[in-house]
Amino acid sequence: MRTLDIASTIGPDLVALRRELHQVPELGLELPLTQRLVLDALVGLDLEVTLGKGLSSVVAVLRGRGGDRTGVDRPVVLLRGDMDALPVTEDLDLEHVSRHPGLMHACGHDLHVAGLVGAARILHDLRDELEGDVVFMFQPGEEGPGGAEPMIAEGLLDAAGRRVDAAYALHVFSSEHPLGQWFGRPGPLMAAADEVKVRVVGEGGHGSQPFRAKDPIPVACEIVVALQTLVTRQFDVFDPVVITVGKFVGGTKDNIIPDDAVFEATVRSLSPEARKAVSGKITLLAEQLAAAHGLTAEVEHLPGYPVTVNDEDEYAFAKDTIVDLFGADRYTHQRDPEMGAEDFSFVGELVPSAYVNLSACPVADHASAPDNHSPRADFDDSVVPDGAALLAELALRRTAQLSRRATTA
Ligand SMILES: [Zn+2]
Description:
By secondary structure, the protein is of the alpha/beta class. Helix content is 34%, strand content 23%. It has helices at 2-23, 32-42, 109-125, 148-153, 216-234, 272-292, 312-326, 345-348, 384-408, and strands at 48-51, 58-63, 76-82, 133-139, 166-173, 182-184, 187-190, 192-201, 205-206, 241-250, 256-257, 260-269, 296-305, 308-310, 331-333, 353-359. The chain has an eight-stranded mixed β-sheet with strand order 1-2-4-3-5-16-6-15, with helices on one face. The chain has a four-stranded antiparallel β-sheet with strand order 10-12-8-13, covered by helices on one side. A two-stranded antiparallel ribbon has the order 7-14. Strand 1 (48-51) and strand 2 (58-63) form a beta hairpin. The longest helix has 25 residues, at 384-408. The protein is elongated, with a radius of gyration of 24 Å. The structure holds zinc ion (ZN). Residues 107, 109, 142, 171 line the site of zinc ion (ZN). Zinc ion is lined by residues 107, 109, 142, 171.
C-alpha cells in the first residue's frame, strides 16, 4: 500500500517532529509554539491554511485532484489531531524530555500532531488520485476547556467550502495493549462528562440547639447517598450512569451549624437519553429531599463533553481499513466503552465519524505500564507512521467511495 510506503519514508521526519513537540508541551487553548511547529512542518505543501481566532488551532484544506465530482457533490473528509499537553511534571529519563517545568505530553497528543502532519504529507503526495478534499484539524484544548466546539463555531466543518461528509481521529495509549495494537468499538466509545454543583441552603445556628436552626449538613449527606440509589434504581444497568461526588464542603467548627453545605459531582453517561434524564432527576431529587426537611437546594448543571459515539458504518469502514493495512492480528475489539470523555464528540454529533485507539506502549509488560496522564507515561513513537498511514488511507478510500456513490445516485 502506497500510504504505508510513503509513511515509512517520511517516518524519521515525523518521529523528529514528535520529539520536538514533546519538549515544548503547552496547555489549553493557547499553544503558540506548537502551532508554529505545525505550520513549519506543513511548509511546502499546497494547503489552504486558516488559523484560529479565539484559540491557536490550525485548519488546513488539501484539494484532491482525482475523480470527477465537482461542486457540492465533491466529497470532504476531516482528519483530526489534538495538540495540547497536561499539567504533569514528567518523570522520564528521555533525551527529548519536556523543557517546560510542570507540563508534559502525558496523553500522547504530540504523537497525534506528528501523525496528522504525516497524513497531510502522504495525501499531498497522492493528491492526483484523491477524489475529494481533506480538512486537517489541529486542535488545542482537548484536555480542557475544549477546543473542538470553538473550532466548529469558527467554521471548521465548512472549511473546504461545503460540509464535511465524514470525520476520523485516533488516540495513542501508553499501556494495556501490546505496541502497535489497534482497538476500538462501534457505538458509544467514551462517556459524556458533565458537572453538577449542589448548594443546600438552611439556616445556621448553635450546634447544641439544632431544632432552632435548619441544618444543611445531614440533608446534603442524604442527597449524596440518594444519588447512588437514583443511579441504580432509575437507570438501565445496560445504559449506565456514574455519579461521583468528589467535593463536599460545609461548616467551620464542630459546634456551629452552617447556613449552607455545597457539593460537586461528575456525572458520566453513555447515551444522549441517559445524559438528558440524569440532569433532570438530580435536580428533582436534590430540591425535593431538601424540601422534605424544610430546606432548599440550588442545583447548577455545567455541561461538559457529550458522548463520543462511533457511527456504525464509519467504524466498520475504519476497522476494515486497519485490518487491510496492518493485518487482522493488529486489531482487537474493545468490549466496553470507557467512562473518560473526549471533545471530538462535538464533531461526532454533527458528522458521521470514527475514533480508533492505537497502543504506543514501549514495554513488553503492557499490563503494568504507566497509563496515559501518569508522569511516567511513555509512548513509543515508532507507531507514528502507522497512525499517519491509517488517517491518509481512510481519507483516500472514503473520498473514493463517496465519489462513486455520488456518481451512481
Ligand atoms: Zn488524550
